[in-house]
């Protein structure tokens, strides 16, 4: 970067960019007392591109990613409630847009020299390597149109308006950087998950009604219409968790986020809701394998959240939970002792949590024919070409030597079969 690089010092909103080590290097590629520093910068950009499977002009894409995920006063306000046109904050953001567009126009990596630029200005990462599914990297085309589309050349005010909508949809900071999160109870913060399960709804064989209901409910939620918390009940391996992950993958590019919470962290649910309430994005709070022993009382926290206690569930949050049993709280013989009134109150208290979910979807174990169809469908997807009867016969033997029928078992059988065929 030449004169345009020095202009970065005049940024008002996006000053975090100045602290990025690669940007520092791009601004003074021959500096830091190392004549070959431009090669070190190029190496770091190549590493970033390979880890994240990013193609094209890597310096430009790197800077666009910083802009798209930067957590500053403008992106925070826009991500939470939107920014009012004509405000001084919009004026400050427009000032920065002018500087950033000048920098892109001048050529970000010109100072790195022809040898390095020959590699990084039209980079092609190694194919077949799954990169990070960071959300910010999936939206580079949107940001490129704002800052680098010469034909359209949107005015700074138009770019700011589009950026405001971008942050309102995708968030900023970690929320813009990831689709999936886990609650870090020790740090009391959301921890982004870089490598998530890429499962799609089409990968889950059968359960068409259940998948359609999950999609319908999620679409209503994304559209701002009334939607329900969902409980997915069924035996292990039937695709309950995969269905939730798949529906989030389907709507992730529309701003849907998933946050997995462990039962041990239920006491921090009010704190989690306080964080999520601040943002404009939609969140699925995912609780996998939800159940309680008779001595556990954490279910009351979840019940209060769903019912709307003192800390009501935010409008931008739904709870999707899976369980292996319909009655989420284990009932004991002690519950049946005592007076009729006491017994009924105890039983009602323990079964009422499941009733709090507006939608309950049952994932039954497949019958024999459904299991065979799962095996055949997964075999086709994996390009395993065996005579139908031979495939079914082998699948039956696999089933009998394992723990019954399920979609997971069918997948494990095909994995085993594929490994043997390959050998």
From TrEMBL:
Taxonomic source organism: Sporomusa termitida
Record Pfam families: DUF815
Designated name of the protein: Uncharacterized protein
Transmembrane segments: none
